């Protein structure tokens, strides 16, 4: 009797172990299937999808998606190299802008030239960046820039009545969106032949004029004429669709940006 009871108990235990093993394998198989489905879903997930699911606090500190973080890095490096940019770019900007000012010079002025032009010690800050186009022909990028600078700009103004006025341009505040086009793409460093830039949108341009050692109201209308000349020169010289091309590698790129 005890032998039969032992056999029955052994069979029941064996059956129980088999059933438990089968259920365990089915559960593990289900978990593996769900895990594979989850991994596949994450593989198809875009950055925008992840932003909808997770809050910024849920990301580890080494995961960075925001343009602001990327721009902080860019702005930090720009501040470091700005003294060298100022030295290199001031003369370039001066030589580029002077002919435009002469072209837009008011009739009441005999000449309008820079006697001093430096961009100052305050670097611009980039507040937005986007890639519009990318392909085999080139890359188009837009950068939003904010600049509350302290440049040292003095215009030497001569009127037809023989009165000369040194006018200082100060308290400049500018916000706008620049479009940069890198084209053509080549297999030689830095991998593009030229850079084309243009002011796609001017959001703000503020500045004040002050006569050095004098009064701007000494000649009626001179302040409005100079301010209008500066604004018109900026509007018509670099505002999109007007484009300026800077060759990087030797070549003729005049038709590359049409």
Automatic annotation (TrEMBL):
CDD domains: SMP_SYT. One of its GO terms (cellular component) is membrane. It is found in: Membrane. Residues 67-249 form the SMP-LTD domain. InterPro entries: SMP_LBD, Synaptotagmin_plant, Synaptotagmin_SMP. It holds the Pfam family SMP_LBD. One of its GO terms (biological process) is lipid transport. Its main location: membrane. It is a single-pass membrane protein. One of its GO terms (molecular function) is metal ion binding. Keywords: Calcium, Lipid transport, Lipid-binding, Membrane, Metal-binding, Repeat, Transmembrane, Transmembrane helix, Transport. Belongs to the synaptotagmin family. This is Plant synaptotagmin. It comes from Solanum tuberosum.
